[in-house]
Design a protein that fits this description.
Largest sheet of chain B: none
Helix content of chain B: over 70%
Shape of chain B: globular
Number of helices of chain B: 7
Strand content of chain B: under 5%
Oligomer: heterodimer
Number of helices of chain A: 8
Structural class of chain A: mainly alpha
Low-confidence stretches of chain B: none
Largest interface: A-B, 25 and 33 residues
Low-confidence stretches of chain A: 162-170
Mean pLDDT of chain A: 74
Radius of gyration of chain B: 18 Å
Order of helices and strands of chain A: HHHHHHHH
Shape of chain A: elongated
Structural class of chain B: mainly alpha
Chain lengths: 225, 181
């Protein structure tokens, strides 16, 4: 058993987990999540300043409402509706979020968007529109693979002294992400591929067959093309 | 002359586009033909090469290794292209049923087109690679492989499945599914 075996097993479990999630949720839901996760990630990477500005504006509105409410409550406590004119809450969103926070804000927006898409697609798309099957499982795996280079480097901060070198540190922009994806594919699939040894050709043939059969199974019966 | 991976990548891209335009129900039949072509050429290659070699020596009476490699690679290249052309131009085996509507249908068409593109351009690249890129003598391609191309060569269809036997698996299963209807 080589040193990379535990990592390979963990990777296989991770892939199987997302395959199961994809199978349960169905093709259409997983497709929407893939579009939002990949598209949203790249869009936010390219427009980090705009994302920060939008978040500031939204927070500004929220803070404004809170400030007015707090002022009103304070005035009620003092017995006069107009209050004493002293601002109760003076900290604005610009004080919270500096320009240096752009990557963090973009990542948080993307994570929120992703979570919202998962929840929304679960509720809004009926099961009849999102068919389960091999392709759905494959899309689920695709989603899972995309999350590794986006989440894993950030999670490393919570696991000190871990000898994980297969995933790059958080990359800057698209180049960093592509590098992380390449590293991840190489360490995950590469180790798995090497572990297969002489069975590689047969398993490659089976993988090709399963993929084609999965596509054929989507052809609806009762009609001719 | 651009990089060789761009050259063959462009071929794969064009075939993917054809797949998108034609729809995956048709493309699946072509996948079968492509896999059969790969199987046949792999199966006959070792048996046919000595015969082709003899023919070459008989006709040209020359010891020019470069020209001989060009002859062999072109033989397989032309044979493969003829089979593929017949698959794309003539009647193909179709699978009964209706395709999924947009957008899932388009994505599946793209996927099957990409598989066909990989199989076709990968095979064309393979028959250049194993004979030492003889088309470079004609100035058609750049034989200097970049690091990416060197890595990609490992993943050409015939390098992943060098024996013809595994190729029988998808052919047999797809035929069974076609017969079952």
């Amino acid at each position: 058993m080589s040193e990379s075996t535990p990592g390979t097993v963990a990777f296989v479990f991770y892939v199987l987990l997302f395959a199961w999630v994809g199978f349960r949720r169905g093709l259409f839901r997983e497709l929407l999540v893939l579009v939002v996760s990949v598209g949203g990630f790249f869009l936010l990477q390219q427009n980090q300043g705009l994302a920060l500005e939008i978040v500031r504006q939204v927070l500004g509105i929220v803070f404004g409402i809170v400030a007015v409410g707090a002022k009103f409550l304070a005035s009620l406590g003092q017995g006069s509706a107009g209050g004493n004119g002293e601002p109760v809450y003076t900290l604005g969103p610009s004080d919270w979020l500096s320009d240096a926070d752009q990557p963090t804000v973009s990542f948080l927006v993307w994570s929120g968007l992703l979570l919202f898409t998962y929840l929304l697609t679960n509720k809004a798309i009926p099961d009849s529109l999102s068919t389960s099957g091999l392709l759905a499982a494959m899309l689920g795996v695709g989603n899972g693979l995309f999350y590794i280079p986006t989440f894993a480097p950030r999670l490393m901060a919570f696991i000190p002294e871990v000898g994980v070198t297969s995933v790059s540190s958080p990359g800057t922009g698209m180049e960093g992400l592509l590098q992380s994806v390449t590293d991840m594919m190489h360490s995950g699939f590469g180790d798995l591929w090497v572990a297969l040894g002489p069975q590689q050709p047969i398993l490659a043939a089976i993988a090709l067959t399963v993929l084609l059969v999965a596509v054929i199974s989507t052809l609806r019966r009762g009609g001719q093309t | 002359m651009g990089l060789i991976e761009v050259y063959f990548g462009s071929i794969a891209g064009i075939i993917t586009m054809i797949g998108l335009a034609q729809g995956y129900a048709r493309e699946l039949g072509r996948s079968m033909i492509i896999i059969v072509a790969i199987f046949l050429l792999l199966y006959v290659q070792d048996r046919l090469n000595p015969i082709l070699d003899s023919v070459w020596r008989m006709v040209f009476s020359a010891e020019d290794v470069g020209a001989q490699q060009l002859f062999l690679s072109n033989f397989y290249l032309v044979t493969f292209v003829v089979i593929i052309f017949a698959g794309y131009a003539g009647r193909v085996i179709t699978f009964s049923g209706q395709q999924w509507p947009m957008p899932q249908g388009a994505i599946l068409s793209c996927l099957v087109g990409a598989i066909n593109g990989y199989l076709i351009s990968g095979s064309l690249w393979y028959y250049q690679h194993i004979y030492g890129y003889p088309l470079a003598n004609l100035g058609w391609i750049n034989p200097d492989l970049s690091p990416i191309a060197t890595e990609l060569v490992r993943y050409l269809p015939q390098n992943i499945m060098p024996s013809p036997t595994p190729w029988v698996i998808p052919i047999a299963i797809l035929l069974l599914m076609r017969v079952r209807g």
